[in-house]
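re the bet — no i am not wrong, look at it urself. input seq straight from the record:
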Amino acid sequence: MELTWHGHSTWYVSVGDTDLLIDPFFDNPKTDLEPTDIETPDYVLLTHGHADHIGDAGEFSETTLVANPELVAYAKDELGFEDAVGGMGMNIGGTVECGDAYVTMHRADHTNGVDTDYEYSVGMPAGYVISDTKPTQVEDEESTSFYHAGDTGLMTEMREVIGPYLEPDAAALPTGDHFTMGPWQAAIAADWLNVDHAFPMHYDTFPPIEIDTDEFVNEIKATGSDAEAHVLEGDETFDLNE
């Protein structure tokens, strides 16, 4: 599984022959790329409807959309998407098969909304666990999985559900503070999730979320967890299989 961070919360995830793009938003200082520079993914995953998470989603409207049903309806009306997993999106707790990947949606503690002249309910904010095998209660040491937490605060579901049952190997965690967790809560999240690899995201895009990423690295160490913090450069790829 290959993970490429394009700044903010935008990740390109390759699982076997399947490519998934999460929260496309290229108007951020960590990337020099335009949406047209990105190889067209097989799936686009949206965590919620804020502009800094769906800003460039319409550039990929020929792909299959994965989001909650309300956000799918908005994307069909306003962003040009025609297809969605199952024809109506998915919802919290569900798992869908997306090519070589399995995508499980989990809640995120955040607000939601879209900037539009129309009134839309765009459902509950979410995060995704992407794995190369179907999640079960039977531990599979050969499975590889990646948790994109979306925009969220620290929540006990990370410790009680996502970590022990979905068993992510790596997690991308918002660390910008102000609108989401900051470095110290994100480090606690990495500890609760029991991941091997932790990546900061959702930082430095706007003045309120500018941080010193060394704080995240130091807070990870302070938890005493086995997680290794990786501060990626924009457009850098990390191979989870190495």
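see?? The first strand starts at residue 2 and ends at 5. told u. also The helical segments are 51-54, 69-78, 157-166, 183-193, 213-223. so pay up
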